[in-house]
Structure formats: C-alpha cells, structure tokens
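Q: Structure for this?
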Amino acid sequence: MNAEPCIELISVSKTFRDGGREVRALENIDLAARPGEFVTIIGPSGSGKSTLFNLITGLTQPDSGEIRIDGRPIGSRTGQVGYMPQRDLLLPWRTVLNNVILGPELDGRPKGPARREARALLPLFGLEGFENAYPDTLSGGMRQRAALLRTFLTGRDVLLLDEPFGALDALTRRELQRWLLDVWQRFQKTILFITHDVEEAVFLADRVLVFSARPGRITTVLPVDLPRPRQSISLLSADLRRLEAELIEALEAANGAADSG
Amino acid sequence: MAHEQSTVSALPASAPYRSWQPLFFDAGRAVVMVFVAGAVLLFFTLGTLQLFNEARAVQNLTFADIFPSPREIYAAWQEFDTLLLEEHIPETLWETVAGLSIALVLGVLLAALMDFSRILRWILYPLLVVSQTIPTFALAILLILVFGFGSGPKIMVVVLFCFFPITLNTFAGLQSSDPELLSLLRAMGASSFQSWTKARLPAAMPSFFSGLRIAATYSVVGAIFGEYITAQRGLGVFLKRSYSSYQIDQAYLAILVTAVLSLLLVVLVNLIERLALRWYYTTRRAGWRGPGIY
Ligand SMILES: Nc1ncnc2c1ncn2[C@@H]1O[C@H](COP(=O)(O)OP(=O)(O)OP(=O)(O)O)[C@@H](O)[C@H]1O
Ligand SMILES: [Mg+2]
C-alpha cells in the first residue's frame, strides 16, 4: 500500500491545434497508480481518455506537466508500457502465435523462447488449438484475447487497455471481465483500463477515475472497496449497485459541469 | 410439394405476378446478346474480307495463305519443334525471366525509395511517368541500336516494359498501411526499420503481386519485341523470318507459343502468390477464390 507509484502524471495538459481551431483535450491531470493496482477510467466520448494513453506511451508529448514511470520522466521514449488500443490491430498476415510474440520480437529477444512462453499461456487465454489460425478467422472475443496476450507478453509492468471489451456482446464481455481479473491477479500487473460501461468500471477497479467532457479533467475519484477476488460476486450485490449509482451521479455531475462551464 | 407451398406462402401477395419478371429479363437479355453477337460477328467477317481483299491486291495471296487452318499450324509445329524448343524458346524465356527478375528488384527498390523519402518521391515519380510516356518502342529501338545483338539489350527492353507496374503497385501498397497499426508498433518501441519490415512491407505484398502479374503479362511480349528489332535467336526472330518469307502458318505458330508462354508465366506468378499470401486468400476473402489463373 505504501509502495512508490509506478506510474505518475503531474499536472499534465494537452491541447491539439488543427487549422485555427484549438481542442483542449486534457487539463491538469494528476494521477498516480501503485504497482499492482487496477484503475478504470470512465468519461464521455471525446474527454481525452485515448489521448491520455497516447501521452503515457510516448506517442504524443504533453504541452506541460510531467509523466513518470518508476520515478523517471519518460520524455519522448516509447515502449515503456504495454498498450492495447481500441482496435485489436492484430497483423493479418501472422498466425495467432506469431502475433502474440510481437513484443519480445521488437525488443530483439530470440523468438524460440518467446514462442515457448506464449504456447504455455495459450490455454489460459482461451487460444489453445488456435496458435496457427489467422486473426481474420477468429471470433471477436478471441481476437481481443489474442490482443491481450500480445500486450501481456510485452513483459511490461504497466498495461494500458483502451476499451478492450467495447465491441463485444454482454455475455462474452462478462466472461472476459472475470477472466481478466483472474489473469491480473496471477501476473500482478498495474492496469489502466478505459471503459464506457459503468458496471464494468466498478466491477474491475480498485479506483474509478471520472473524466469530464472537454476539456478532459478528473472530476471524481471513486475508491471501490469491494472484497477480492470478485469473480463470483453477484450482479445484484447491494454494494455493487450502490457504487454504480454513485458513479452514475458523478458522471452526470461531470457532464453538467462541462455544459455550464 | 409441401415444401414448395410453404415457400410460396411466405412471399408477398403480388408474388404470382412477380414470378414472371425473371423470364422477361432473361428473354430481354437473350435478344440483346443475339444482337451483340451478330454485330461482333459481322464486324469480324467484314474486316476479314476487307483484309483479304487488300492482301490479295498487293501480294496475290489466297485466303488460305492468310488464315491457315489449325492443321497447317500443327504441321508447322511438327516441322519446327526442335528448332523452337532448343533454340528460340529458351532464348526468349531466358530474356523474359532475367528481365522480369531485374524489373522486380528495381521496382521494389524504387517503391521503397519513394516510400522512404518525400524528396525522392518528388524527383522519381515524374521521371517514372515520363519513362512510360515517351514511346517505350522508340527507347527500345535506341537501346538495341546502341548495345547491339546480344541478349543484354533485350533484357533491358523487358525491364523497361515491366518495372513500372511493379513500382507503382508496390508503392501504393506501402503507402496504404494502417496508420493506427504503425502507431501501435511505435508505442511498443519499434524502430522505423522494424515497422517497415514487420508491418509496411507485408501489408504491401498483395499490391506488389498485382503489379507483378501485370508485369509478367507484358514481359514475354517485351522480349519478343526486342528480338524482332534485331537478334540472332528467339521467338521474335522466328516471327520476323516467317513474315518475311510469307510463311503465315509459322507466324501463327509463333504467336500461339508466345500466348502460351505468357499464360504459363502468369500462372506461375499466381501460384507463388497463393503460396506466399496464404493469409490473404484463406481469410480476408473467405469464399472468394482469388484471381484463379488470370
Ligand atoms: N491528433 C489529434 N489532432 C487533433 N485533435 C485530436 C487529436 N487526437 C484527439 N483529438 C481530439 O481530442 C479530443 C479527445 O480525443 P480522445 O480520442 O482522447 O477522446 P476519448 O475520450 O478517447 O473518446 P472515445 O471515448 O470516443 O474514445 C477529441 O475532441 C479529439 O477530436
Ligand atoms: Mg478513445
């Protein structure tokens, strides 16, 4: 609990200028996550959530503020965190197995051991028997799991997941949420997780961050004190319902503030 | 019967009337096709007669001289098969394959250069287009007049015919790679060389093969054209000799062999493509069987 934050943002702001128009995407974001923490991020469309991830991965530079990973400012370095974008972006010309070892391959690690490691994890990720399949032949849920395995196998301690279950049906989604908690507990990763789904945000998180509409700001931090493991928790649990109601209220307040401001 | 009734009852009330429509369409289509076929036939018959009359006026040729029967062509093949198989076809094939290979390397290299730097693109692109707009034929003749009789100049003609579609298609393929995918690779810490080899090049492969297919189609004709201008061996020489001695059946034979060689080359390219791009044909186009032999 008293560990150093492994990822830290200090009053980070980002404004996009295209043409004469200015889009204030993020304003004064302060954020810190402990090692092994699960943080979900929720907010209206266009509130700068994906932009936040682009800043942490080093793809874009903030206008002001600082981003630190393990206490060191990242500057313009990339490849420090595992990143799973909104689309799965699997390489269509590679089999599942060769897709998931992309991270180690880019790091210049030998492919043999990477493949062995990946094979060992295939059952856990529900991809057993599909290692030689091409991504286009897989179902949506499987593609997401393959993209997640690729993100896990980068070997980074911090994982950024941008709406990983956004395009799935309710049942598959539910199943993958439980499964993700399982995997997360086993590997002790720090996860930042973007979602549009209130239930999902509460069910997964240690903390929920609520973003306001443009300019994106963190308006509420909602600690989720549900006991873990939660895989078997009932959807109708009173605690869960109460937290969801609180979160919806916070979301509405955040939107209202942006409308009047 | 029961099954048929159930399908009929599922149709809207106007179904009995509608069910006549396909018949009308079919009849209409048949009439149009008869007219088109008739017009095409008429055109070729008249054209043939015209050609024949003109040829006869000049050379006193009979109809059979200008249009040999398949049997005569086969006889010509029997007469010349060893000469063709041992001397002319190997020469033409060698020039074609060598030229196509050089065009492949050159085309990919040019595409990569244009993809790599915007300045190079500005310099190279107009040059490439111009290289195709000045009549390739004029350039080819110049090449052969300067470099002489050997197979070298013919290979250069093949390269000239073939590199352009390869360059253009490969370049388009390289430019079409998914920007989000490239961002992901960068976020994962890939160098620009790595994103080139791991994402852009493989993504360009389907386009590259379309270019190669077009190039393969042109390549044999390129070689024969080069030989026709001046050479000691090759199908082009055979063709030229046939014409100059009014051996029209031999000329037809040469044309037929050329067509077969071109077709074989294209089939070979398609075969390699199928093997190399298994991902493209097994998944992206589920149900679609690709270009077949064309
Ligand atoms: N490269 C860019 N250039 C200009 N504007 C941008 C750029 N990237 C993002 N924006 C703008 O910044 C704002 C925030 O975008 P962002 O993608 O971060 O939103 P988001 O919270 O992820 O939305 P969603 O929930 O729909 O994914 C948007 O208004 C968007 O138009
Ligand atoms: Mg987004």
